[in-house]
Design goal:
five-stranded antiparallel sheet, 16 helices, HisK_dim/P_dom, alpha+beta
Amino acid sequence: MPKSRTLSLIAGLGILLSVLIGFLTQQHFTRTLSEQITSDIRLLGEKLDQRLTRYQQLPQLLAHDPRLLDSLHAQSSPQRERDAKMLQTNLLLAYWAKTLSADTIYLLNAKGDTLAASNWGQADSFVGNNYAYRPYFSDAIKGSLSQFFALGVSSGKRGYFFSAPVFNTQKQIEGVIVIKIDLNLVDEIWQYKELEYVISDPQGVVFYSSIDTWLYHSLVPLSATQQQQVRESRQYGNASLRPLTQFPSLTVLNTNQQAEIYLPQRQRSQSFLLAHHDMSTAGWVIYGFTPSMHIYTNVFESILLFIAFYVLLILVMIYWWQTVSAKQALSELNDTLEHQVADRTQHLHLANQELWHTIEQYELTQAQLKETQTELIQAAKLAMLGELSASINHEINQPLSAMRTYCENGLKLLKKERYQEVASNLEQVIDLNERISTIIARFKIFARKGQSLNSSTDAAQSIRNAIQLMHAPLTRHQVALQLNLTEDVFVRIDAVQFEQVIVNLLQNAIQAQELVADKKIGITLHAGRQRAVITLWDNGPGMDDTQKQRIFTPFFSTKHDGLGLGLTICRRILDMFSGSLTVHNHTGGGAEFQISLPLSKEEPA
């Protein structure tokens, strides 16, 4: 039998046996842990039931005390007599609370107002509060004994409330006596630190837990009606009632031995082995949890132990085969070693040559990419000049027409020998000629390629230069320009490329307001400690979230005839100088582009 097939059979047998061992171990530990959890929480439930049973009949017994009825009747007495009676009742309730080890005992009238309480002298006294919305009051005022769990509105502490009606001599209900028990007693009787527990109400809302972050969550998703009922009763304050599991109901949850439970402190879910126990006295359900990882740890250890034994057995069995074949393998190795060394040396040499070739190709590609990017920026600039050609023509034609007019007038004046007026016309021609030269020089500077990456630029002056380039379009479209520029702010960017970015943003802002009657563009410049921020906003329709996310993507354009490269190139230019370009919604409507550039310590040469 071939060696590989033998090894495959041995490995396959080992895997099969490992899976079997793992399955049997998982079943054993799952059953054992489930029984242990069930036993532990049943014991906790029985102890808790015993504690609560002690208080179940106490409100009914206390309600027969005639002093409570006197306190209820004292509400119609004069103020001094009523105050004295309430003080006496407060002291009586405080004595009862201390004797019965209760958290608070208080007396409510038929409207649910607290007349007296054992904690009347504390800052969180119940006296004066109305608890008519609590189920323990509504049940007791109808003549029934009641018990209820809730968060205290005044104290904010969890408690279990027992209540009973207070009858007069005609068997009419005139008030309600309530005993509040502090549920910290659960911590006193719980002894299993390795086991987590949860106590929930019949709807599955967790009000007590060994894990604090589970408090006031629901074990299963609650319906809108259930959530409304819980909130109206103020049973758990303003708790979120977020579900800890995705089971559709408590019935489904209780039929499962394992569940994925959400851990708010870790923002993720974890698998737990669980069991539950119904409490007869309180009507609660106690759940016990232990991480499923404990089972898997034991399973893993069992599998590892088996694998170690199995491997040791296999090693013993194949030891003799290795001894026999070792000499033959050594001989074959000596024969082929020199050939393998030579072959691998040749492969390494070829691989080294291929690596150097790849590096050269990478460097060449990077250089070509950088050159292409530079040419693309220049092409975009020239394309922008092409779009501004009409503006350039308008800027130059106006002074040319004026020059012609002055020259024709000069000839007529010369014939009339009005030399002073001829000289004035010639001065106007010279001024117009200088204006044309300035316009041509401005566009010529804009058309040249960018300079060094370490250039220092006067930000305010470059913004003004860009505005001069866009003077004709701004005038033609009747755009109101609002400037707020901080002077002597020098940024680390090439001036020409910075002007190209501003011109592009101005052109986009003008085009965005084609259908707007009151066209406005605003530019602000201010400097922080390390960076300058330039904001350019318009009064157009603005952009939706999809457009803002894609506006810097190549070939995406909001214009029907746009190429979608202008803003992409602007961002690339700013990236080269460690700058950034972002878009936001302007507070007054429209779009707002924000440029951030590092400050330069040196003034431009």
